[in-house]
């Protein structure tokens, strides 16, 4: 995928950098795999605003994604589609009996290509295999944490991890954050890098584009009153003191991970600071 810069014929297009959507099909979503998506506007069941800066936005339908990939066999990619609910593109696949499913698309997948899931799969882009069957050094994405749980890691645009080693019933995965972690070899992963890797290069160009996403303008904590935020208040332009969240949790280096967390024993190397 690549991006393109628009001509500055309007103020909103002056700095706009868009995805050219090369290889993405302009088709309507599969009706059997979409459900309605209700927006809350940041309000709870009694109408009270419990989350700020949420409201408006374009109407969206949620595409049901097959993260578990429990069905084995080969399927043909019918189309590569845009999904407003995630940064990555999705692929509509069709099995031999006509069953259709949505999966996360990897870089390089094209319409008409065949992908395989299961023990008989080869380590080609788009195929889903168990970690015990994937060759060492392979770049993978959409990784399960527990067998049968469904993909949890490396699912966003351009994300990937690497299978570094195997030790008994565990495989060692190097994650995008730099962390090395042990995962059971019975867990599944998909070969390749998640699609739309140029997503980070896009520039919205105007505030209205965030409104289309349902994001309202965010007030800086420094200009709030002390009742609204720990960094608020003071005479004139105050610095706000120590950067911290609305709940008082410090930012910039403060460790929030529980020291006694059960899954700590599976982390071989912590993420780089």
From the structure above, extract its key features.
mainly beta; OB fold (Dihydrolipoamide Acetyltransferase, E2P); four-stranded antiparallel β-sheet; 26% strand; globular
Strand numbers in spatial order across the main sheet: 9-16-10-13-14-15-17
Determine the structural class based on helices, strands and strand pairing.
mainly beta
Tell me roughly what share of residues is in helical segments. under 10%
Rounded to the nearest angstrom, the distance between the terminal CA atoms is 30 Å
- The whole-number mean of residue pLDDT values reads 94
Compute the number of helices: 1
User: Strand-and-helix sequence, N→C?
Assistant: EEEEEEEEEEEEEEEEHE
The CATH architecture category equals Beta Barrel
Tertiary shape: globular
- Percent in strands: 25-35%
Q: Please give the number of β-strands.
A: 17
In CATH terms, the superfamily is Nucleic acid-binding proteins
The overall number of domains is 1
CATH topology: OB fold (Dihydrolipoamide Acetyltransferase, E2P)
Rg calculated over all Cα atoms: 22 Å
CATH first level: Mainly Beta
Q: Which residue ranges are poorly predicted, with pLDDT under 50 across at least 5 consecutive positions?
A: none
Main β-sheet description? 7 strands, antiparallel
Give a structural overview.
This protein has 273 residues and is mainly beta. The protein has a single domain, classed as OB fold (Dihydrolipoamide Acetyltransferase, E2P) (Beta Barrel), CATH 2.40.50. The chain is 2% helix and 26% strand. It is built from one helix and 17 strands. It has one helix at residues 207-212, and strands at 3-5, 17-19, 34-36, 61-63, 73-81, 90-95, 100-104, 114-117, 128-130, 139-141, 143-144, 151-153, 161-167, 170-174, 180-184, 188-191, 267-269. The chain starts with a strand and ends with a strand. The model has no long low-confidence stretch (mean pLDDT 94).
């Amino acid at each position: 995928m690549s991006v393109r810069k628009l001509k500055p014929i309007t103020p909103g297009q002056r700095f706009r950098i868009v995805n050219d959507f090369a290889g993405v099909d302009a088709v309507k979503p599969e009706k059997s795999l979409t459900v309605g998506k209700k927006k809350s506007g940041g309000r709870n069941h009694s109408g009270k605003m419990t989350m700020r800066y949420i409201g408006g936005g374009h109407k969206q339908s949620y595409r049901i994604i097959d993260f578990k990939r429990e069905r084995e066999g080969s399927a043909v990619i019918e189309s590569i589609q845009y999904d407003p609910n995630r940064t990555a593109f999705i692929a509509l696949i069709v099995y031999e009996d006509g069953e259709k499913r949505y999966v996360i698309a990897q870089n390089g997948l094209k319409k008409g290509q065949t992908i395989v899931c299961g023990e008989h799969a080869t380590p080609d882009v788009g195929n889903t295999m168990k970690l015990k069957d994937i060759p060492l050094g392979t770049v993978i994405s959409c990784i399960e944490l527990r067998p049968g749980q469904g993909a949890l890691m490396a699912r966003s645009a351009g994300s990937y991890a690497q299978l570094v080693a195997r030790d008994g019933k565990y495989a060692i995965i190097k994650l995008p954050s730099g962390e090395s972690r042990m995962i059971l070899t019975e867990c599944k992963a998909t070969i390749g890098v998640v699609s739309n890797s140029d997503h980070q290069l896009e520039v919205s160009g105007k505030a209205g584009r965030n409104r289309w996403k349902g994001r309202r303008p965010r007030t800086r904590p420094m200009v709030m009153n002390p009742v609204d935020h720990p960094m608020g208040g003071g005479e004139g332009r105050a610095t706000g003191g120590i950067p911290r969240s609305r709940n008082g949790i410090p930012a910039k280096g403060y460790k929030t991970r529980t020291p006694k967390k059960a899954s700590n024993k599976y982390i071989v190397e912590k993420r780089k600071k």
